Amino acid sequence: MTTVTTADTPKRRLDLTRPVLWLFAAFMIVLIVLPLSWLVVFAFTDKARRPTLQNFVTLFTDPAFLDPLMTTAIIATTSATICCLVAAPIGWLVSRTDMPGRQIIRALVTASFVTPPFLGAVAWELLAAPNSGMLNQLYRYLTGAEDPLFDIYSLTGLIFVISCYTFPFVFVLVANALDNMPGELEDASAILGGKAWTTARRVTIPLALPALVAGALIAFLQAMTLFGSPAILALPAGFHTMTTKIWSLFQYPPKLELAAAAAVPLLLLTILLLQGQKFLLGRRGFSVVGGKYGAPRPIEMGGWRWAALAFCLLVLLNPVFLPYFALLNAAFSPNATTLVTPSTATLHNVVFVFTELSSTQLALKNTVILGASTATVGTILALVVAYVTTRRVIASHRLLGFLATAPVAVPGIVLGVGLFLSYTRPPFVLYGTLWILLLAFLTINLPSAYQQLQAAFATIHPELEDASRILGATRLQALRQITAPLLRTGVIATWCFIFIGVMRELSAAIVLFTSQTKVLSVLIYDLNESGDLAAIAVLGIAMLVITFTVVLAVNRIPMFGGGAGARLRNS
Amino acid sequence: MASVDLRGLTKRFGSLAVVDNVSLKIDHGQLVCLLGPSGCGKTTTLRLIAGFLEPSDGEIHVGERLVSSRARTLPPEQRNMSMIFQSYALWPHMTVTENIVYGLRLRKLDRDTIAKKLAAILATTKLEVLAQRYPGELSGGQQQRVALARALIVEPETLLLDEPLSNLDANLREEMRFEIRRLHDEYRYTTVYVTHDQSEAMTTADLIAVMNGGRVDQIGTPEDIYARPESEFVARFIGASNVIKGTARDANHVTFAGATLKVVGAPLTPGQGAVVAIRQHDIGLSTQAPASTENAIKAVVTRQVYLGAARDYMVEVADGTSLRATTPTETNVPRGSEVWLTLPPERCRALSR
Predict the structure, then answer these.
(1) CB count, 10 Å around CB of A431?
(2) Does the predicted interface ipTM exceed a cut of 0.90?
(3) What distance in Å separates the CA atoms of residue A48 and residue B97, rounded to the nearest whole number?
(4) For chain A, which domains are there?
(5) Picking from A121-125, A143-147, A189-193, B258-262, which range would have the lowest pLDDT averaged per residue?
(6) Which end of chain B is more exposed for a tag (fewer CB within 10 A), N or C?
């Protein structure tokens, strides 16, 4: 070894970390606290902004408000239960057995996940509206009966459609937990004499339980705060859920105070549920991630494999095959609910939507702009907050984490109101611009983005950053050169997640849009009001095409490195 | 010249003082081991030196510079230190070469200089053939060498090592121990080495600081620490010592189990309790009564194990205290036998704490 001269000490740089972090913190506070404060102010005051509890008295004595509350509770509970009952077995089959076509099933579940719930609801209108629904037509044709088989405009129909597009949340969590569970844990039980079923009952299921409970909770919240499906299916049936009720309070004459007050039970219930989950799962603190474990051995199902596959496909008939068939059919048929034949197939609907329907171009443009910008800003924001909380960079990291998760407790429509109240007055007059929608979508998508990236951060050993800093990198350099590349996969996933989230968002947009800031989801809702289901089908398909194109494109951007995945897998 | 000087260093998490008033001066070019059981505050001390943590009290000086104090802590990147982590912390998305030259790139050295230094360090650590691999493709020992190369190539004033060998198997650990010492001697930086393994500390360190409960219990050369422990904790933690609790008769005699022991070490106060340490292999064991009764105690064998190179005895003396003794294999006394123990006075060390 030759003697070498002393290396230069790294140049002194101004440490911008803290100011940057405080800037983010301030932005977060404005983003979340401002609309929520206005909500609280409106909930506890009358029109003259004098403090009062009258809003709550009205809320809890008037049957017009109590009934939607009950309906919402029923919908959320039954949907969450159905989701767990359906998603848990499918998750287990896909993750732990030798069932054929496991990858296809995963892809199909993802397909139902990216389907906007309101689009699914419209598709089920095409399928199961009492008179024109294609399934009911088929039923009548086959049996000669007068009455329809299904009526989608009913509480049962609504619960069914909500469950169709909520169960992927549970599936993803359960399948991930099972994917990551070390095979040794099951083997240890087997070697001690546990039979397959005993092992499943005593080891696998208890270990997957936290994921299932978390999934049930998300399903519950999702079903509770959904606006699109109830607006499409419950309103024609003549009943309200909390979200549609709140929305109706914004119709002329607006009753903003009551709407804000109506949001409070939803808010409290959500907080209660989140605390309950913490209490149930907090003490156990078992994590199935970490350590070098072997891959689990798939369970051999023998002859039951095909039965299992049939079960999965049968379930996926409802959120994927039937609705997409109905939408495709409607898009190319002269009559939305008539089965298309080669001789009747027409491009009339497509031509109509893209050339004659005046708002299409604008809505498409707005949606893509909002999707890309929200995903980019949201990912960066979530990245910084997740970093601060997992690495405890500043004293107030808990507060930041709380702020980032708080919007989970705020239904989209309520947030929409809060933003409406905040940004129609100085100093921030943003109403009527795309900015207000950007803020809404950002806030709505922040909790899930934050949680995803926090989980991603937790898998990166803090010593990897420490090693970079002790060699002379500033905190920001370490973040850019070490942490960012290691987070690639998580970042891409989060970006896509937010983009998809924006595409399917309706509940906040419905309150905040103006004619110049219409987005696709609002356009589709409008078309549903006017009964133009064929145009919806065309737009829905266009929307999915955009989603898939963007997701594929993002995964191929060289900056995010196509080969990175292979390299990281080696470690 | 970069000495490292800890002055009254304290780190509290909440009300718990994990590092409690630690003072330690490390001269330039010295290799100091912080040795102690897990939870004794040694890693926290190291992270304080590195600047990853801010002290609750006290100061750290490196050379002439004050780098940490309650008021101001220089960030790690401005300390011109290197560190080797327990997990190695190799970046999985960079090749061996990219990992190693990372610090040089941050220092904005030109391409030729980087290439020259890289070639030299790869040769020293025998990593040439692995230069284009990713860390995930290396064995534990190879990863350890990459971590060493990455830390050394920037020629730090101070090198910090946090249990660097704990993830290696026994053979490799022994080899790497000497490797670390060899590289230290070659570059002469100031090294702080954290470990819980006393033989690791003995073979590598110039100076050992034994830590217990956030405090430094004893500082000394490996020989000091081993042969002249000052506290019961150090005596027990370093090597296999018996700790005898008796009563002082005068400044250097202790009454214990009906016998009187002449001892060395800390001066005793007559009438007070006295703690005496003696190593297992310093105790003589015989079935015959020794010629002189000085420092001889009668005992009964309660256990005997054949270790191959020696025999390990557990004996019980009159007051019920159990002592361990290691003898040559020829001394073969069955369980239950009465034996005489001889405790050489120069090996009986009275402990001050």
Answers:
(1) 17
(2) no
(3) 70
(4) 15-49+347-542 (1.10.3720.10), 53-281+304-328 (1.10.3720.10)
(5) A189-193
(6) N
Does the domain spanning B4-227 belong to CATH 3.40.50.300? yes
Confidence of residue A288 (pLDDT cuts 50, 70, 90): very low
pLDDT in tens, A375-434: 999 998 898 888 888 877 666 677 778 888 878 777 787 788 888 888 877 777 888 888
Nearest to residue A115, comparing CAs of A424, A522, A431, A500?
A: A500
- Nearest CA to A86 out of A147, A6, A175 is that of A175
* Burial tier of A290 (Cβ tally within 10 Å: 0-12, 13-18, 19+): exposed
Give the CA angle between residues A481, A396, A285 to the nearest 5°.
80
| B146 in contact with chain A, both atoms CB, cutoff 8 A | no
A564: which chain B residues are within 8 Å (Cβ-Cβ)?
93
For residue B161, the chain A residue with the least C-alpha distance is: A467
Residue A16 pLDDT class (50, 70, 90 cuts): low
Q: Which residues fall within 8 angstroms of residue A209, CB to CB, at 6 or more apart? A: none
Domains B4-227 and B240-350 agree in fold? no
A527-534 average pLDDT score: 86
Is the separation of the CB atoms in B260 and B343 below 8 Å? no
Compute the nearest-CA separation of A558 from chain B (Å).
15
Which tokens go with B72?
């101001």
- DSSP symbol at A376: H
In chain A, what residues touch B150 (CB-CB under 8 Å)?
A: 467, 471
Helix (H) or strand (E) holding A80: helix A63-96
Mean pLDDT of A157-181: 88
State the pairing for strand pair B57-62/B4-13.
antiparallel
- Backbone φ and ψ for B13, nearest 5 degrees, come out as -110, 110
Residue located via tokens 């909930």:
A43
Q: What is the pLDDT of residue A379?
A: 92
Cβ B157 vs Cβ B189: under 8 Å: yes
B223 touching A (Cβ < 8 Å): no
**Interface contact B50, partner A, CB < 8 A:** yes
Does the pLDDT of residue A13 top 60, yes or no?
no
> Quick one: pLDDT band at residue B34, thresholds 50, 70, 90?
very high
Q: Looking at domain B240-350, what is its CATH homologous superfamily?
A: Nucleic acid-binding proteins (2.40.50.140)
On whether the CB atoms of residues A172 and A500 are closer than 8 A, the answer is no
Q: What is the per-residue pLDDT across A80-98, written as a single tens digit (0 to 9) for each?
A: 999 999 999 999 898 888 8
Q: What does residue B90 show for φ and ψ, rounded to 5 degrees?
A: -80, 140
pLDDT at A7: 36
Residues of A whose CB is below 8 A from B51: 470
pLDDT at A570 over 70: no
Q: Give the ranges where A392-483 is alpha helix by DSSP (H).
A: 397-405, 412-423, 434-458, 462-470, 475-478
CA distance A1 to B119: 9
Cα–Cα distance measured from residue A528 to residue A542, given in angstroms and rounded to the nearest whole number: 16
More confident residue, B38 or A18: B38
**What are the extents of the domains in chain B?**
4-227, 240-350
Q: Is the pLDDT of residue A9 over 50?
A: no
Number of separate helices (H) and strands (E) present in chain A: 28, 0
Please give the full DSSP string across A490-537, using - where no structure is assigned.
HHHHHHHHHHHHHHT--TTHHHH--GGG--HHHHHHHHHHTT-HHHHH
